[in-house]
Specification:
heterotrimer; A alpha+beta; B mainly alpha; C mainly alpha; A: alpha+beta; Alpha-Beta Plaits; three-stranded antiparallel beta sheet
Chain lengths: 211, 190, 420
């Protein structure tokens, strides 16, 4: 039946079905695809990133911190948003940890270069996005205490990457131990050889002195 | 319940208060003179519209509601729109210099003013004489039956007594419509 | 009798009014006048008639304005929610329960926006345009019969009053467009006026169809002429007749066009011409235009309900216990929601399609409806009249509909003007 105006009537039937269906449709749970924001947060992909954070192992942030203040990330950061000051002990001798580690997240562009160059797997990208503040400057500079987050948190946001990182660290540790063992063994062997050689050299000199 | 506000609208002639004539009348005169004197063409067109509205109010005050509303509907709704469209679509300023046929008659401004004043005086004198000395001024009451069913009476009169003028106007309007359509038609001879 | 006794007596009488909901508003006004007279008598003054009239008029005016403004507010929310649901999304649902308080938020936003007037705009006309738009729009609901004996002003030429005031809206659109000194505004305003004038003719003619049959231009008389039930239970509304149905559809389409609603919202489509004649208006002036448009839409829907859908008459005798003014507003709301339904379904017309539709389809169809109504009336309203008027309506509709809109763009018909 195709009289003039039938198209409009068919269209209005479709719309009416849609209006009623959007209230009563039990079959399609995701028919209304709106995510009601503050109540429902979006599920982010694993690789989504926003600003960096520092990883610490174990329970104590200060003791378990992986960062050794080598300042490579500060040098490599394109907008230069990282500021590091090395720590020193009571005598003034520098130790391998940062005293000050600030990142200005209003400058950070999320390029992940600091992550790529860090030799100690200590700086990683976070995926937080609810960072608004009432001031444009001071609250947007994150200090060391705000940046330190545990390895467990890292596993929470990026499981595959964290597992791979842990495996890499573990492998590195094993390699270092093996190297250390080999080195100590080598040193012990060298020392034993030197001692034996010294003992051998010392023995002939002794009877010459006695005769 | 409907008689409260009814009293303001649809008053017969002999019961209208004076202010219902004075205010629209004065406003109409002001608007009409503004329409003539204002520089900006659109402003003068809008003042003309105001005078149309005041005329409609005057019709309603006289008890002729039908004519009053038709005045609003036709004059303000259609004629005023056409005037405004015409003003908008003709470029202003281009008309003045070139096509003025009187540009060689350069009279002095004093003479201009005197001529204007004389014409105004003559027109006003004629109008006032017609208003105050016409024989109809004594009979200022409408026949009683007019208040009863004005619309039906108008319809009956249109289609019986004044049928020939009605048909004549219809032919005239059709001719105007055809002419306008012809003028606006695309030129297909390219 | 002292003041407290008077108050108690009036209160009891007021509570007694609730026995008959249909006449509640009329009796309330009568009670108010009596209360004022008695109060005056208590204080020793004889209340003059003009004071009583003034107070009653003020109460009626405030009631009508408040009703229409509440309708406007509710409509803006429900329209957005219905549009959203048809598009598989939620509408506004943050502000109140189900977003009911959204108009409050919108009002606050509009009121606190900066009122920008372009430097080269014509200040006087720019300022006057919203006023000229809203004043006639607010005067429109005064002639509608909301219930039995519930007309604020019973004009014998009520329908003409309505259309005369719509002319004011056209003038306002022109003033808004021209005063903005923006060529897109002027263009939008001219298109808007062309649309409103073109659709006014079929609108007035379809209203005249009803006036022809009922013999009067007064809305109260038109509703009274639709009273009673044929065969004991079918309503005698004019929409139930073939010519009435055609005229109702034409009036409905004309109403959509006069209020610049989709599919005729070319003047205000955002993707077309920014906001057309409203481009240079912000804040409160824009809110005034918006309100005038919606109040005008409700007023013209009210006229449609009065002319064709029986006004305050109930559809079936067993539903007559629901008061007349409830029926009026229920029907008004139904027509308004159907306009929203049409908005969700149809895309926007182009200006030439709009003009073609008005002059080549709707105007001939409105004359056909006039002819059908005359045939029905003079054939004695028996079966012959019904069949004849149905034929007179349907055959030209099918013919016009088939041949008016199919344009055969075959290769031989195309004229290439500049291809040489």
């Amino acid at each position: 039946m195709n009289f003039p105006g039938s198209g409009i009537i068919k269209g209005m039937a479709v719309t009416a079905r849609n209006i009623v269906g959007s209230y009563f449709d039990r079959a399609h749970a995701k028919r209304l695809t709106t995510e009601q924001y503050p109540e429902e947060r979006p599920t982010l992909a694993e690789a989504s990133r926003s600003v960096p954070f520092l990883v610490y192992d174990g329970e104590d942030p200060e003791k378990g911190m992986r960062c050794v203040a080598c300042k490579i990330c500060e040098k490599e950061c394109p907008p230069q948003c990282i500021y590091i000051v090395k720590d020193s002990d009571a005598n003034g001798k520098p130790i391998l940890r940062p005293k000050v580690f600030n990142i200005d997240i209003s400058v950070c562009m999320g390029c992940q270069i600091c992550v790529e160059v860090c030799p100690f797997e200590s700086i990683r990208m976070d995926n937080i996005y609810e960072m608004s503040s009432y001031d444009r400057f001071a609250p947007l500079v994150l200090h060391k205490a705000q940046l330190l987050k545990s390895n467990a948190y890292y596993h929470g946001i990026r499981p595959t990457e964290a597992t791979a990182t842990d495996a890499r660290i573990e492998a590195g540790r094993i390699r270092k131990e093996a190297a250390l063992k080999a080195a100590t063994a080598k040193v012990a062997a060298t020392k034993a050889a030197a001692a034996a050689k010294a003992a051998e050299e010392n023995k002939p000199s002794q009877p010459e002195q006695n005769a | 319940m409907h008689d409260f506000l009814q009293k303001i609208v649809a008053l017969p002639w002999d019961q209208s208060p004076q202010w219902l004539f004075l205010i629209p009348g004065l406003l109409m005169l002001l608007a009409a003179s503004a329409a003539v004197c204002l520089r900006n063409l659109i402003h003068s067109a809008l003042c003309l519209v105001l005078s149309f509205i005041c005329l409609g109010v005057l019709f309603m005050a006289l008890g002729a509601e039908f004519v009053g509303f038709v005045q609003l509907l036709v004059y303000v709704g259609a004629v005023a729109m056409l005037i405004l469209f015409a003003i908008l679509l003709t470029p202003a300023g281009e008309v003045a210099a070139s096509n003025n046929p009187l540009k060689n008659f350069r009279l002095s401004s004093a003479l201009h003013a005197a001529a204007g004043a004389a014409i105004t005086f003559l027109v006003l004198a004629g109008l006032l004489t017609a208003i105050f000395f016409s024989p109809r001024a004594a009979h200022a009451v409408l026949p009683a039956q007019a208040a009863a069913a004005p619309v039906a009476l108008i319809g009956e009169n249109l289609l019986t007594h004044t049928l020939l003028p009605l048909l004549g106007i219809a032919v005239l309007l059709t001719a105007a419509l055809v002419g306008a359509a012809l003028l606006a038609k695309e030129d297909t001879s390219l | 009798m002292n003041f407290l006794a008077l108050l108690k007596d009036t209160l009891f009488q007021f509570l007694g009014l609730f026995k008959n909901l249909d006449t509640l508003p009329v009796e309330f006004m009568r009670l108010l006048r009596e209360f004022l007279v008695k109060l005056g008598a208590l204080c020793g003054i004889a209340v003059p008639q003009w004071a009583l009239d003034l107070v009653s008029s003020l109460v009626i005016i405030v009631a009508i304005l408040v009703t229409f403004l509440i309708l406007f507010a509710l409509m803006s929310v429900f329209e957005r929610k219905l549009l959203a649901r048809a598009q598989n999304r939620y509408g506004p649902n943050r502000v109140g329960p189900c977003g009911i308080l959204q108009p409050v938020a919108d009002g606050i936003k509009m009121l606190t926006k900066e009122d920008l007037v372009p430097r080269a705009a014509d200040k006087v006309v720019h300022y006057l345009a919203p006023i000229v738009m809203v004043a006639p729009a607010l005067m429109l609901p005064v002639i509608l019969p909301y219930g039995r004996d519930m007309v604020a002003v019973d004009l014998p030429v009520g329908i003409l009053f309505f259309f005369a005031l719509s002319a004011g809206a056209e003038l306002a659109v022109f003033m808004a467009g021209w005063a903005s000194n923006n060529k897109y505004s002027i263009l939008g305003a001219m298109r808007a006026i062309a649309q409103m004038i073109s659709y006014e003719l079929p609108l007035v003619t379809s209203a005249l169809v009803v006036a022809l049959v009922a013999g009067s231009l007064s809305p109260a008389a038109l509703v009274a002429a639709q009273g009673g039930y044929s065969f004991g239970f079918l309503p005698r509304w004019f929409v139930c007749t073939p010519w009435g149905f055609a005229a109702c559809l034409l009036f409905y389409i004309g109403a959509l066009s006069e209020s610049n609603r989709c599919p005729f919202d070319l003047p205000e489509g955002e993707s077309e011409i920014i906001a057309g004649h409203l481009t240079e208006y912000s804040g409160f002036k824009y809110a005034i235009f918006f309100m005038a448009e919606y109040v005008g839409m409700f007023a013209i829907n009210g006229l449609l309900v009065t002319l064709f859908l029986g006004g305050y008459q109930a559809p079936f005798p067993f539903l007559e216990w629901i008061p007349g003014w409830c029926w009026f507003f229920a029907k008004l709301w139904a027509v308004a929601l159907s306009m929203v339904w049409v908005r969700t379904t149809l895309p926007r017309f182009r200006i030439d399609q709009m003009m073609l539709f008005a002059w080549k389809f709707m105007l001939p169809m409105s004359f056909v409806a006039l002819l059908a109504a005359a045939a029905w009336y003079y054939a004695g309203q028996g079966l012959a009249g019904w069949v004849l008027s149905a034929l007179i309506v349907v055959v030209p509709y099918l013919l016009l509909g088939t041949f008016c809109f199919t344009r055969h763009h075959s290769a031989t018909n195309r004229r290439y003007l500049y291809s040489e």
